Amino acid sequence: MPENQSERPLQPGDRAPNVILDAITRQGKISIDDFRGQKPVLVGLFRGLHCPFCRRQIASMASLAGDLQQKGVESLTIVNTPIDRARLYFRYHPLPNLVAASDPDRISHRAFGLPNLEFTQSETVWPYKVSLDTLTSMRVDMPDLPQPMAPMAAVEFLDNADGYEFTDDDKRMIATGEGQLVGEFLLDRDGVIRWCFTEVADDGRHMFGVPAPEEVMSAASHIAA
Question: Known InterPro entries for this protein (predicted)?
């Protein structure tokens, strides 16, 4: 299948690309075009389940899925995790209303223009390269942490707190996609992006964060069926 690839992160007003992926929470395939012409959809593109920030971002998105559905807006979570590993994880960590798809090759991330950061010794060219000094100077501040922490320290703390056990599948995803930036895109019924929240924006100010629920619901209200 020819792969779509955007040279820049897609923005409101852009037409969303179609991607066809293995469904996690049901059998068969799922695609963006399943919703086009039918219903608006909130699409979340995340790093794999190996990422503790993404596990929390996915849970946050799932927590809004029911309220969004009442407005006629569907939700689709896409994770950079192989299908068997993802199904096993969600079997033991079910999330209500979650509709999810597996994208171990990050086809959807590239199609929506979300870069995979390259880690360098000294050069930062956001959002394509970041130096190790810049990375270690960042601080992650979230309720599950005892204090603001550097990203890698936060990862270690959260993984320990979650009791997350890494598999070979997880390690393969980390090897090629550790720097993958993530985001959420709200598409109208025609598949046009009307709102987005990404780690790319504002020089990474939203790294590891989640959009405010009221912001998501407000955006959904403007395009609700």
Answer: AhpC/TSA, Thioredoxin-like_sf, Thioredoxin_domain
Q: Is residue 84 part of a domain?
A: yes
Cα–Cα distance measured from residue 92 to residue 97, given in angstroms and rounded to the nearest whole number: 15
Residue 33: other Cβ atoms inside 10 A: 14
| 120 Cβ contact partners less than 8 Å away, ≥ 6 residues apart | 129, 130, 131, 132
What pTM, to 2 d.p., does this model score? 0.95
- The boundaries of the domain holding residue 34 are 20-115+166-223
> What is the number of residues in the chain?
225
Question: What confidence tens digit (pLDDT) does each residue in 49-66 have?
Answer: 999 999 999 999 999 999
Is 45 in a helix, a strand, or coil?
Answer: strand
Q: Checking phi first, is residue 97 left (phi over 0); if not, alpha (psi -120 to 50) or beta?
A: left
